[in-house]
Design a protein that fits this description.
Elements: H1 6-14, E1 23-24, H2 30-41, E2 52-57, H3 59-66, H4 69-76, H5 80-91, E3 96-101, H6 111-131, E4 135-139, H7 147-154, E5 161-171, H8 183-186
Antiparallel strand pairs: 1-5, 2-3, 3-5, 4-5
The protein binds flavin mononucleotide.
Flavin mononucleotide (FMN) binds near residues 16, 137, 138, 139 and 141.
Length: about 190
């Protein structure tokens, strides 16, 4: 018979992100954040390739990254409003962890599977932060998909990509629940 963990099940039933713009101080310090990073990296990983790494962006780093957005946006033809919104993602944040997809050469594990593993890291960190009582939100943003921005902002190598930024902080307002998917409509049961 299964041996359920009621607390874990209750967390998974009610978990939800908190919008990054509602997250403020305090944020976890390095001592508090470190175990959450351990939990995030405890994730499914075909072939034990560890095709990911983390970049913790503290306040000064976020300010520096925010300062790179305008040039990137101009190069990509973004509007002033798009640039302002993307800049604010970093300028208004106090802590964000960039999850980096760092694929490894492998004959056995295709790149797409390695990318799935990196997404697991991001989701694991999101859930670990939420379970620890912090507000957290997984954001990407158009700049995150630009290789030059990723290199200049986070020091990414050419083969690396940003899976996402996990913003973590203290929520200032509890958001209403959002509509959730219709599991029955999305699930096919096959018994033959
Ligand atoms: C890969 C990825 C990138 C995302 N990027 C953004 C983003 O840039 N901006 C945004 O408003 N939401 C973004 N989201 C969605 C937010 O994380 C959203 O808050 C989340 O879907 C809420 O889900 P939850 O309440 O079940 O945690 C992204 C989600 C994923 C999976």
């Amino acid at each position: 018979m299964p041996d359920p963990d009621p607390a874990a099940l209750a967390f998974l039933q009610r978990r939800r992100s908190r919008p990054a713009r509602t997250l403020g101080l305090p944020v976890p310090d390095r001592t508090a954040l470190r175990p959450l990073l351990d939990m995030a990296l405890r994730c499914p990983d075909h072939g034990k390739l560890e095709p990911w790494r983390l970049v913790v962006l503290e306040r000064a780093a976020l300010a520096r990254v925010a300062g790179l957005v305008a040039d990137c946006g101009a190069r990509l033809g973004k509007t002033e409003a798009e640039i302002a919104k993307q800049r604010a993602q970093f300028a208004d944040a106090h802590l964000a962890v960039a999850v980096i997809f760092a694929p490894k050469p492998s004959d056995k594990v295709p790149g797409i599977e390695q990318g799935h593993s990196a997404a697991c890291v991001a989701y694991g960190l999101l859930n670990a932060a939420l379970a620890a009582g912090w507000g957290a939100n997984w954001l990407s943003g158009w700049a995150s998909h630009d290789a030059a921005f990723a290199r200049d902002a986070l020091g990414l190598a050419d083969h690396e990509r940003i899976t996402g930024f996990i913003h973590i902080g203290t929520e200032s307002a509890t958001p209403p629940e959002r509509p959730r998917p219709d599991t029955d409509a999305l699930t096919t049961w096959m018994d033959a």
